Amino acid sequence: MPGLYFEELVEGEVYDHPMTRTVTEMDNVLFTSLTMNPQPLHLDEEFAKTTIHGHRLVNSLFTMALVGGMIVYDLTYGTTLGNLGYEKVEFPNPVFHGDTIRASSTILRKRESKSRPDAGIVWFEHRGINQRDEVVCLCERAGMMMKRPAEA
């Protein structure tokens, strides 16, 4: 199992995740439509031409979900007990069709669970970065992580 246990997550450690993904028009239109978001900034090229960006933006919730998925294999695959919540979410730069996104994570802090002796809470910062090295998504979240099981 590639995910890390609570004990293996070190405060201040930075993880540059190796997966990258080029965002397509299909990703944006499908995600926006599946989530029933009628915002023309994501769906209507002619409308988007009249905005400050000049063309459609990728739905920011897709961007956050993409970054959230990119971190799983390295950090939480099979070792998380659940996401406890997001404390901060920012989108400092837009994502456009054709942008390639990569992710980086920092372990902000951690503590043992007060209610579960087999778990701890870890606060993560995840960053989505485009091919121009611009941060496009920044979020801080808390997750309940498994402790390493006792050896049999």
UniProtKB/TrEMBL annotation:
Residues 12-114 form the MaoC-like domain. InterPro entries: HotDog_dom_sf, MaoC-like_dom, MCH/BMMD. Pfam families: MaoC_dehydratas. Transmembrane segments: none annotated. Gene3D superfamilies: Hotdog Thioesterase (3.10.129.10). Belongs to the enoyl-CoA hydratase/isomerase family. PANTHER family: BETA-METHYLMALYL-COA DEHYDRATASE, MONOAMINE OXIDASE-RELATED. This is Acyl dehydratase. It comes from Prauserella isguenensis.
